Amino acid sequence: MARQPSLDSERPIMAQSVGPPPFSSPPTLPIGPFTFALEPHKSNLLQNRNSKRFSAVSGSPSLAASDRTNSTLPSGDPRIADIFQLHDGFERLENKPLNKQRFVPTEEKSNNLNKLALGAKVERALGRRMTSQDAVMRKPLSEKTETRTDSP
């Protein structure tokens, strides 16, 4: 019984490249404060760029398009329709009059609230520790009362 070679081993690992593909940025869709890319970036897109934007954090060039926003997906793609449907649903859920009334604390106010919350956490933690101890809580003795009783 002869062993037959696997079909996977006969396939080429990578197809021969004809040339660099034309540059086009992946379509993005803003949903609320977020932006979703509809297609992952390709690593060889950087070769076709005339201008490069650099990241403020890493200093490496960005692959995002700065001057072109052509879509690489066909307009009738069901994935795009699903995302637009989700976007419309999120827009309907957002209540704009209530967003205008939303409380946004100032930096000073948020710092004060954070300090109060931290104090409450510490107080609760100390309370839990002290109740599990065998210590007996007594009123502290004052030195003034001791000196008065000692003098004749």
From TrEMBL:
<feature type="compositionally biased region" description="Pro residues">
    <location>
        <begin position="19"/>
        <end position="30"/>
    </location>
</feature>
<feature type="compositionally biased region" description="Basic and acidic residues">
    <location>
        <begin position="136"/>
        <end position="152"/>
    </location>
</feature>
<feature type="region of interest" description="Disordered">
    <location>
        <begin position="1"/>
        <end position="79"/>
    </location>
</feature>
<protein>
    <submittedName>
        <fullName>Uncharacterized protein</fullName>
    </submittedName>
</protein>
<feature type="region of interest" description="Disordered">
    <location>
        <begin position="129"/>
        <end position="152"/>
    </location>
</feature>
<feature type="compositionally biased region" description="Polar residues">
    <location>
        <begin position="57"/>
        <end position="74"/>
    </location>
</feature>
